[in-house]
Amino acid sequence: MLSEMPHLVLLVEDDDQIAAPLIRTLEREGYVVERVAAGLPAVERVQARGVDLVLLDLGLPDVDGLEVCRRIRANGYTGGVLILTARGGELDRVVGLDVGADDYLAKPFGLAELLARTRALLRRAAPSADDPAPAAPVPATASAAAGADTTTLQVDGDARRVWVGADELVLTAKEFDVLALLDSASGAVFTRERVMDEVWDENWFGSTKTLDTTVGRLRQKLEDSGTSSHIVTVRGVGFRLESSPSDA
Ligand code: CA
């Protein structure tokens, strides 16, 4: 399944005792692994591009892992972020997902569990935003965008890219998955259970606050983009994507 271009996993972990077996295991699975032992080098490495997944320890010697996550997302990184931490509290979990992490694994964890999460995130990850290939919007999208008004939302499921008019909306993997699902039947209500089932791995054990924080970030991004599409919460049931003309 791993093709000619192996995935690059960046391990951010200051503890050698923890890092060594992780690196061995990931390399044996065919991943290319780079390791940094502090937060700021991690931010720099991600900024230099090519990273498909970040395995991120929270307790680091310079800046906290949550701050690393916040910064790499602010810099536009859209690949996967899996937080590894000894802190098992619900608060950390929610805060971690709030700053843009995709998943969370509490130490101590089994290596099989780590590999399952890694595979799931890489499977869902957007094609690396670093890919030089489509420098400009694909022709169909560009012409459609030119004809459409600048508030029209277009979800390109194959390329895993989203456009508002001619502008690309940069989303994390999970944000994209939620939006693509809602967009697949615009106007229809998707129950919370269905969104959880389809977007999060079945081995996800976190609370459903994950869903709310992801939807919250996505809603904010849609709002900031100026699109006429927005996510409506149907209280006690789920969500739907609604598109209202900008002059309505
Ligand atoms: Ca640590």
Tell me what the structure shows.
With 248 residues, the chain is an alpha/beta fold. The chain folds into 2 domains: 8-124, Response regulator (Rossmann fold), CATH 3.40.50.2300; 140-243, Winged helix-like DNA-binding domain superfamily/Winged helix DNA-binding domain (Arc Repressor Mutant, subunit A, Orthogonal Bundle), CATH 1.10.10.10. Helix content is 40%, strand content 20%. It has helices at residues 16-28, 39-47, 65-74, 90-98, 111-124, 139-147, 173-183, 192-199, 209-225, and strands at 8-12, 32-36, 53-57, 80-85, 103-106, 153-156, 161-164, 167-169, 190-191, 229-234, 238-243. The strands form 3 sheets. The protein has a 5-stranded parallel β-sheet with strand order 2-1-3-4-5, sandwiched between helices. A 3-stranded antiparallel β-sheet has the order 6-7-8, with helices on one face. It is globular and about 55 Å long. It starts with 7 loop residues before the first strand and ends in a 5-residue tail after the last strand. The model is unreliable at 128-147 (pLDDT under 50). The structure holds calcium ion. Residues 14-15, 57, 59-60 line the site of calcium ion (CA).
